[in-house]
Amino acid sequence: MENNDILIRVRYALDIKDNDMVKIFKLGGLEVSRDEVKKMLTKMGDSYKDEAVLEEDDSIKINNSKLESFLNGLIIFKRGPQEQKPGQPDQTQAPLKSNEPVNNILIKKLKIALALTSEDMIDILAMAGVTITKGELGALLRKKGHKNYKECGDKYARNFLKGLAIKYRG
């Protein structure tokens, strides 16, 4: 899935307004205007078009770092800022590489932002017609490099966002 498509689906599923989108990006450390948000939420043209045509589409392509900023901001927007405890090391993750898949990060950060349990996530996927075991879900939520880590395919990410839309929008 394209990052723009992910952003559009998250916004729709959680019914986030444009002004809140600007706040969320700001909480994630990225300054964007309301017009830029609207351009980010515009469906991208065909991926085989060249850059000059994309500029005419009046849309902004979202890279992994912008999407990660949005997801980090969403966590802060929904749950509040996390207080750093004295003596605790800074737990910032390494930024995503531009070619790295984001589906695992997406479901992890949405789980955190919405305070979902594994059972909630299984129920949300079931609403979209996907059955997944707790073990399979755990493999998707593991840190990359763990022996049981499994890369999250577009099927799970797309259906998780579809299930969120069903749950939060009815």
Distance between the termini: 24 Å
Summarize model confidence as the mean pLDDT. 87
List SSEs in N-to-C order: HHHHHHHHH
Low-confidence stretches: 48-55
Cα-atom Rg, whole angstroms?
A: 16 Å
Helix content range: 55-70%
Number of helical segments with 4 or more residues: 9
What is the 3D shape? globular
Briefly note the structural class of the backbone: mainly alpha
Largest sheet: none
Record field, number of beta strands:
0
Beta-strand percent range: under 5%
How does this structure look, described?
The chain has 170 residues and is mainly α. Helices cover 56% and strands 0% of the residues. It contains 9 helices and no strands. The longest helix has 16 residues. The two termini are 24 Å apart. About 5% of the residues have low confidence.
Give the structure's gist in a few sentences.
The chain is an all-alpha fold and 170 residues long. The protein has nine helices and no strands. The longest helix is centred in the middle third of the chain and has 16 residues.
Question: SSE layout and pairings?
Answer:
Layout: H1 3-14, H2 18-27, H3 34-40, H4 51-56, H5 64-79, H6 103-113, H7 118-127, H8 134-141, H9 154-169
Q: What labels would you give this structure?
A:
0% strand; 170 residues; mainly alpha
